[in-house]
């Protein structure tokens, strides 16, 4: 038998060594993880989880560079109506039935084990996209031509100027069809400041695609000086994602006649927003100890973008000095 020459043996050994080295030096990419605190007190803050950075998109609704955004208590994902990123969300809601005392006893340290325990997407998990979610909610019953205004629902409205307020309820819907809500009649009274008394009670009708200015008691075509707009069967307020104003809506707790002021705690006012899982499964509870504080539930949320899945747990709403709207959250990419 002919034996292989030494150069051939050396060449074969070198090739095997090269293959062995190439097998050992190629590591899988590191999974994104970390902890963020964002100052969401004055504007939206946009975060790319895959890159572990806060980004500043020029036009968030047209940008794919962010995954999740925060402003005050609002959380938005880059998908559905909110943006082109295709991000969807789900909740591992272990604390939805927790008592107020149990929520108040929770801390970032005590709930770290619950975060760590989520390593894969639970079977049967349904992810949902964000959609436009108006601050005016549940103000009618029925659907199509049978829709009826719910006069018992009273709303406290901060108007678009940010300094005047109104109590509002919807008293009638006219011309509704299967494809259009027609027009909505509002009964309201305006107070010129937080401490002023209400002015006279008035009514105004908003038709589909139009807006009204409650301070001037008139319809308006202004892009900035409006308070309420009817669009696609939704009543929108001039604040949040629907307009540049300081408008907001809180729920009244009494009848329209017995409501004596529309001015309440600033954090009680909602703005129009894009919301999905963080709207249907809120990440916090309010005023549990009678001190108007925001208390995280420490539930774990799953965010899916393409094949990547991240778990997110919001663990604080205040910074070290107690200032609100400084949101701290932990996150980690997990197996999909």
What keywords describe this structure?
mainly beta, globular, 24 strands, 11% helix, five-stranded antiparallel β-sheet, 4 helices, 336 residues, disordered N terminus
Which consecutive residue ranges, at least 5 long each, have pLDDT under 50? 1-21
Instruction: Evaluate the radius of gyration.
Output: 26 Å
Order of helices and strands: HEEEEEEHHEEEEEEEEEEEEEHEEEEE
- Can you count the beta strands? 24
**N-C termini distance:** 55 Å
Please give the share of residues in helix.
10-25%
Give the number of domains: 2
Number of helices: 4
Structural class: mainly beta
Q: What share of the residues does DSSP label as strand, in percent?
A: 35-45%
Shape: globular
Largest sheet: 5 strands, antiparallel
Strand order of the largest sheet: 1-24-23-22-6
Average pLDDT: 91
Descriptive overview:
The chain folds into 2 domains: 33-132 and 273-334, no CATH class; 135-268, no CATH class. It has helices at 6-25, 100-105, 112-117, 277-280; strands at residues 33-39, 45-48, 53-55, 68-71, 74-77, 88-92, 131-133, 140-141, 148-149, 155-158, 165-174, 183-191, 202-207, 211-213, 218-220, 228-231, 234-237, 248-251, 273-275, 284-286, 294-296, 300-305, 308-318, 324-334. The chain is mainly beta. Strand 16 and strand 17 (234-237) form a beta hairpin. It starts with 5 loop residues before the first helix and ends with a strand. The chain is 11% helix and 35% strand.
């Amino acid at each position: 038998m002919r034996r292989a020459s030494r150069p051939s043996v050396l060449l074969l050994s070198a090739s095997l060594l090269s293959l062995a080295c190439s097998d050992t030096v190629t590591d899988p990419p590191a999974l994104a993880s970390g902890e963020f605190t964002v100052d969401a007190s004055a504007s939206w803050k946009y975060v790319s989880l895959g890159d572990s950075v806060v980004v500043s998109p020029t036009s968030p609704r047209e940008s794919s560079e962010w995954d999740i955004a925060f402003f005050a208590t609002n959380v938005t994902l880059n998908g559905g109506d909110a943006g082109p990123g295709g991000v969807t969300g789900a909740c591992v809601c272990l604390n939805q039935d927790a008592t107020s005392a149990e929520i108040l006893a929770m801390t970032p340290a005590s709930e770290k084990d619950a975060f760590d325990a989520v390593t894969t997407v639970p079977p049967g998990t349904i992810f949902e996209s964000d959609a436009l979610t108006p601050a005016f909610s549940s103000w009618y019953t029925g659907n199509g031509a049978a829709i009826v205004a719910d006069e018992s629902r009273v709303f406290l409205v901060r108007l678009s100027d940010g300094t005047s307020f109104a109590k509002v309820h919807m008293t009638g819907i006219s011309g509704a069809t299967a494809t259009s809500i027609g027009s909505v009649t509002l009964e309201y009274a305006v107070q010129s400041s937080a401490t002023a008394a209400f002015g006279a009670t008035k009514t105004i009708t908003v038709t589909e695609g139009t807006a009204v200015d409650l301070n001037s008691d008139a319809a308006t075509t202004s892009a900035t000086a409006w308070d309420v707009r009817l669009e696609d069967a939704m009543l929108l307020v001039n604040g949040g994602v629907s307009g540049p104003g300081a408008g907001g809506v809180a729920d009244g707790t009494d009848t329209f006649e017995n409501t004596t002021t529309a001015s309440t705690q600033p954090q009680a006012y909602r703005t129009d927003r894009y919301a999905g899982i963080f709207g249907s499964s809120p990440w916090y509870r309010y005023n549990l100890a009678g001190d108007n504080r925001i208390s995280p539930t420490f539930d774990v949320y799953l965010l899916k973008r393409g094949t990547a899945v991240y778990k997110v747990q919001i663990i604080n709403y205040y910074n070290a000095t107690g200032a609100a709207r400084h949101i701290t959250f932990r996150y980690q990419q997990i197996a999909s």
